[in-house]
Amino acid sequence: MNTRQRLIQINRRNLSGGRSDLIEQADEIVEIPVTNYTDPVRWQLEVERVFHRLPLVAGFSCELRDVGSYKSIEMAGMPVLLCRDRSNKIGAFVNLCSHRGAVVVAEGGGKANSFSCPYHAWTYNLSGDLVSVRDSRDFGEIEKDCRGLVALPVCERVGIIWVVLQPNLQVDFDRFLQRYDEVLGYQGLENYHLVGSKRIEGPNWKICYDGYLDIYHLPILHRNTFGPEMPNRANYDAWGPHQTVTGPSLEYEHLAEVSDEDWPEENIAPGIKTIFPHVSIAGGLISQLFPGTEVGSSYTIQNLLISEEPTQERIEQAEEQFEFLNYVVREEDYRTCENIQRGLGKGPAHVIFGRNEGGLQTFHRWVDDLITTEDEDLAGLFPPI
């Protein structure tokens, strides 16, 4: 079954569930020790074996459309520089000068012809090569060819840029994505426009990510904002560790008798899309979640992208929407997450995921598997494509 057929099948299942008021359920209720959220040794393993071994979403093609476009971002403790070079390809580099390790480009984005370290002005071209050493006669002879910025594995697909934080790790992006890029392709992000980005501080990264997969809470926690209009029942579908979150709905009732061949493209891939281990895509709101500096901290970069031409009127509308969404995440979701973090260990020894929370169960199983898998066995977690 190809991706299109599978997505249409999911839509037909959701329509059937809307008629019968049923969802797919996990086989059982699952308990997870609260120490999974509080143990610093486990947290360090998660940083090393999840965030430093898997492809992470570093940015979006619309941020780097032109030659010379760049973006500097810190990802799980690693300073990363993205750049579109003169051959129109995206490169990713450890954003540290080969001279003394200073950060070359401050966080943010823009356009440049080259990058000059702010400490001693060693200069790198758009491909990361060292092209100039200031006062080289005084400094002494070095082989510039060996002193470029350290390259990182990078992949640009369907308007999204993935980066691996280990320079020499051999990564099969196809196996990691498990054809989920075909699902994401229906979003059309390569044609979107970035309106803005905001950073939100949070507690343990898994507490926050649980919330992005959780539909159960929507009409309760968000009752004073948008919650009363939202369902609280979900169906989860997985492509390897990546998941879509949809639910029973009569939205496509008018397509019930339409053949698969005639099903309209714009109605194929609804719902929330999550990219393991740290991204949620809810329409144009794309959240990149990273562990912080300790077990009880994280940070999330909220990005708002729009598909329409960014006229002044549309930008103003989008910014107003962004402010509202940012408020909801910061003051409702993450405020609750912080309270959960403070309470862990003081009450029950386990947190519970019900049969209606199968997507959260799947997420935690993948984290468990990854932190117990050695480098040489990592590829075995992802079936060949």
Description of the structure:
- The protein is an alpha+beta fold and 385 residues long.
- The protein contains ten helices and 19 strands.
Q: For this structure, what is the CATH homologous superfamily of the largest domain?
A: Naphthalene 1,2-dioxygenase Alpha Subunit, Chain A, domain 1
Gyration radius, rounded: 22 Å
Order of helices and strands: HEHHEEEEEEEEHEEHHEHHEEEEEEHEH
CATH architecture of the largest domain: Alpha-Beta Complex
CATH hierarchy class name of the largest domain? Alpha Beta
What general outline do the C-alpha atoms trace?
globular
Any idea of the CATH topology of the largest domain? Naphthalene 1,2-dioxygenase Alpha Subunit, Chain A, domain 1
Count of domain modules? 2
- Uncertain stretches of 5 or more adjacent residues: none
Major sheet strand order: 12-18-17-16-15-14-13
Distance between the termini: 13 Å
Proportion of residues in helical segments: 25-40%
